[in-house]
Design a protein that fits this description.
Length: about 150
């Protein structure tokens, strides 16, 4: 991979593979996006870089990297949407105060505390596993023996 100058501006583009977005957005929301141009959804998204285009010395073209959506979860309830927007605002304030709004910088960890506070009402991974185990056990009890009288 070529080394970039410290001041090089890297252009970011999304690649064409949108399967994770398809899975993350419930059908009713996809329909709403189609029927109401300009409609918005709020999501937590993880990107992975897939390809890059370097640049030759003396070339006027900026380097470019393509990103693919690796994981995505869409907020579907009003409280989730408000929480994600508050996290976004906190992250914006942090970058603004650190002077890193236009660049990536180390910043502080204030956002971590806000995320922990906002997620306190959401199930933990352990709580989710317990829920799934109970659901499986209930299905097994219901899906037992079938008797026919006649």
């Amino acid at each position: 991979m070529p080394k970039l100058d410290k001041d090089a501006e890297v252009e970011v583009k999304l690649d064409g593979a949108a399967a994770m977005l398809q899975q993350a957005i419930p059908a009713i929301l996809r329909r709403g996006l189609f029927e109401a141009p300009g409609a918005r959804i709020v999501a937590v998204v993880e990107f992975v870089s897939t390809t890059y285009t370097g640049h030759a010395k003396g070339e006027d073209k900026d380097p470019q990297v393509k990103l693919r959506v690796k994981l995505a979860e869409v907020a579907t309830e009003g409280d989730q949407i408000r929480q994600l927007r508050e996290v976004m605002r906190a992250m914006y304030r942090q970058r603004k105060m650190n002077g890193t709004l236009d660049e990536i910088g180390p910043g502080s960890q204030d956002v971590d505390a806000m995320v922990d506070r906002l997620l306190a009402a959401h199930p933990t991974e352990e709580e989710f596993e317990v829920h799934e185990d109970r659901k499986r056990a209930a299905q097994e009890r219901r899906g037992g023996r079938v008797e026919q009288f006649g």
